[in-house]
Amino acid sequence: MVDAYLMSLAVRSGGSLALHANDVQGVVSVRQWQHSDPNPRGPGVLVSDCEWGQTEVQVGVAPTQVGSWLQVDDLLAGGTPFTFSAWLRPTDLSADSVICSWLTPVGAVALVAVGGELTLRRWHDDRVDDLSTGQRLRERAWHFVGAVVDASEERVTVFSAPWGRTGGPFVREFVGHHVGPRDDNGGLMVGRAAGVATGAFDGNVAGVRVHLRSLDIVELMDLMNGLGDHADHEWHFDDRSDPDSAPPVAEGTPALTLSGAPAWSTLIPPPVESTGRPLVLGGSIHLHRDDVDDCDWPLAATIEVPVDAPSGFYSLRITTADQERDLPFLVMGSARVTLLVPTLTWQAYGNLGRAPEQWPGRSHYSLHSDGSPVLITTSRRPCDTFSPHARLQVDSGDGFADGAVVTHLMMADLYAWHWLVSEGVRPAVLDDRELHHAGADVLSGVDVLVLSAHPEYWTTQMLDALQGHLGRGGHVIYLGGNGLYWVTSLHPTKPHLMEVRRWGGSQVSSVDQVDRTHQYESVAGGLWAEAGRPPNESVSVAFTGFGAGDSLEYERTEASYTPEWSWMFDGVEGRRFGTEGINTGAGNEFDRVDTDLPSPGRLTIVATAHPQTTDHFGVLEYGRSRAPHPLVSAHMVMAETDAGGLVFSTSAVTASGCLVVEGPDAPLRRVVSNVLRRMLDNPR
């Protein structure tokens, strides 16, 4: 593989792109895409080489920044004793798990769980010594763990106790030279070995405290029972005002930095007696050795985008001696017709079905190596599923979707793009993050906003912007299904980080209910419908069913023949349509009207698709349902807003694949094109 990624998935003309790579020697060129599916039922692969962006890259081997950890600098002083303590809930002890570490004058010292056994590890004089305590930690159980370090007496006392023990921790004393911290770097790390680039702990960390003195066994017993003296350094793990640091309890002391994009949690060790006395302050941090914030590979090239570069889909092609790889990006622009490209959905599915050893950073549809849900993902990693050639591929053994041939990311977005370009409307593209940050103002010149095949992940700010567009009389064409579904947040200063905490709905994994609250924004994770902002209020429909079998035909309703709406079907013969093209008709994931929920305006269902075979079934939030069933159906809908806009929904992930065929055998394209023309004839 070619190890490389772009710092951003979208840029405006006149801007620049930063390419980061690892062990790559080759040539870079830029390609512009109109269509990427080679299926002979469509126009084939339509891509052209650009005259700009060519360069050579030569980057050596670089470490990959993987894993999350906690860190505080300038905390410890050489020769000064200290006591580190914390409550840990390890979730995977199959590999060496670093609990805490600090640099010494001759190397480093760390507390490490080796095969689950608490061990003091010393790096010195080019040697590594492991000194076992005989104390064992258990997975998914809370333990009070730490060390008393007295450099003047060259002694380290390691201690631990399982939750529920109140009579003081087990202790093991070790004597050795140079165990105290260095004078010039008194930092402390939790979950990572000092001097090593990666995190190395899986599990929750709570109640981290540092006393700048040696605690004796009675003081440790008091501390583990929630009765200890105030620590010199302690941090709030329930204050998420800065997602990258835990603020100190004592004013004037340093904050604890969170690196590698770990997940905040409400899990803490429960009280051990009837008074309910807490053992720690609120909250914990769940570290993972496979978390990724940014792979942090070196800059390989900066590509300047010309000021006259047309808006659209592009890729940076890297060609080496034996491989080629396309890294997609968007050149955003402004136009009356604008396609919103669902790059957050790209990221949510990023690297699904790919080996994490080869493709660092897991998808929101996978589990961490410790079995916990992936809550945070990054776009700053090599991501095979971003490719214009990629189709849906799931993790091995997923019985629901394994073997499915579905197009729903960039390739499907190019179906919509090819249609718009072919219609001659001079469209532009916009990406999710731009809508999130710029809000409704970025749509000020847009008459028709087109939502692509699978716009599943939306932030609060994106929904607000869409509502602002509708409130000004703007039009919307929704070409997809399962859209506006999951509550999503972006890091306030690192927009490449995306947060999804699934709970309820039709999902692949779930957080505990107590951990639904997002860390990047104060919203409860789960469905937007449950949060009081159902997709129906913006696009008239909401996710209702899956289709594992062949896609379905639409059938016109009686309302579609009335003078009010018959213009939509000008040039269309017969009642049934939608089996032409690629990714045809109503299928994969589809939506319907729910009259009990709000809508953008007066609704008219102009066509429906009702599967009759049992390989189509409903989403779980509506209860058990399997076709044939009234809840398992797709509704093609037109809505008129109070502000004078139109909202048209095809309501199926697969529908946009019908837009890439032309002529008399393309009735679904004719319907959608008729709608587009009517919207342009009636600007907001």
UniProtKB/TrEMBL annotation:
Domain N,N-dimethylformamidase beta subunit-like C-terminal: 284-659
Region feature (Disordered): 235-256
Family annotation (Gene3D superfamilies): 2.60.120.200
Protein name per its UniProtKB record: Unannotated protein
